[in-house]
Design goal:
mainly alpha, 3-stranded antiparallel beta sheet, 10 helices, globular, binds manganese (II) ion
């Protein structure tokens, strides 16, 4: 990275942390009356990112991050609010909505899952993470997979093997046992009426092409390998302990 690029990235960083709703809505394909950052507005909100769009370079590029967050994720939030409005799901927490979602509730299933999955993904990636798991999560990984490397290998297989769009997951079941799974589209392991493997998500990886195609094109395996440089093990440990 040359000095000019660095300054640009640094400037983008401060913009992202103090982003104004208008600067997001201006680039969206449709109007978003309820954007996350509107305090006091009812309904689900786009969470603030904890890092700048360019902060995950070279593993995830700034342009992908920007489009992914301001267009894809914002779109799921907007459509989820529309989907639950006036239904019996209105007013429940996102986790409750996901648990109640029936397979035929297509709009809530896709957009509720889309909102949850991306919100978690932004939390469990970080520009400067620890290199390996810590604490109780680290012990549980060794206990349930044999080693960190073996867990990663299983996760990689799930992420590479998810045909088409979807997600790979490290989850904890009711007893705290860790498992790897994958889901199609925006389904997730909290959808008790839909998911074949259920549990509390600890880390997840978006393997939709929109998550990596600009930088990696068809090389999903390279994107998956890059992901391990970003996993926020501090947050993952917190999620494991709070489950
Ligand atoms: Mn995505």
């Amino acid at each position: 990275m040359n000095k000019r690029d660095f300054l640009k990235t640094a400037a983008l960083g401060s913009l992202t942390l103090f982003i104004k709703p208008n600067s997001i809505t201006a680039s969206l394909p449709y109007e978003l009356p309820a954007l996350s950052l509107d305090e006091g507005k009812e309904g689900f909100k786009l969470p603030q990112l904890g890092f700048a769009y360019g902060a995950l370079e070279p593993y995830i590029d700034a342009r992908t991050m920007e489009i992914h967050y301001t267009k894809h994720h914002a779109g799921y939030v907007f459509k989820l609010n529309e989907a639950v409005k006036g239904t019996k799901l209105e007013g429940f927490s996102l986790e409750k909505v996901l648990a109640k979602t029936q397979p035929i509730d297509t709009a809530v299933r896709n957009n509720g899952g889309g909102h949850y999955n991306h919100s978690l993904f932004w939390k469990i990636i970080s520009p400067n993470p620890l290199k390996t798991p810590i604490g109780h999560l680290s012990s549980a990984i060794d206990r349930d997979f044999g080693s960190f490397e073996k867990m990663k290998a299983q996760f990689d297989t799930a992420a590479k093997g998810q045909f088409g769009s979807g997600w790979a997951w490290l989850i904890a079941d009711k007893k705290g046992k860790l498992r790897i799974t994958s889901t199609a589209n925006q389904d997730n392991p909290l959808m008790t009426k839909i998911a074949s493997v259920k549990g509390t998500p600890i880390i997840n990886l978006d393997v939709w092409e929109h998550a990596y195609y600009l930088k990696y094109q068809n090389k999903r395996a390279d994107y998956i390998a890059a992901f391990w440089n970003l996993v926020n093990w501090t947050e993952a440990e917190k999620l494991y302990n709070e489950r």
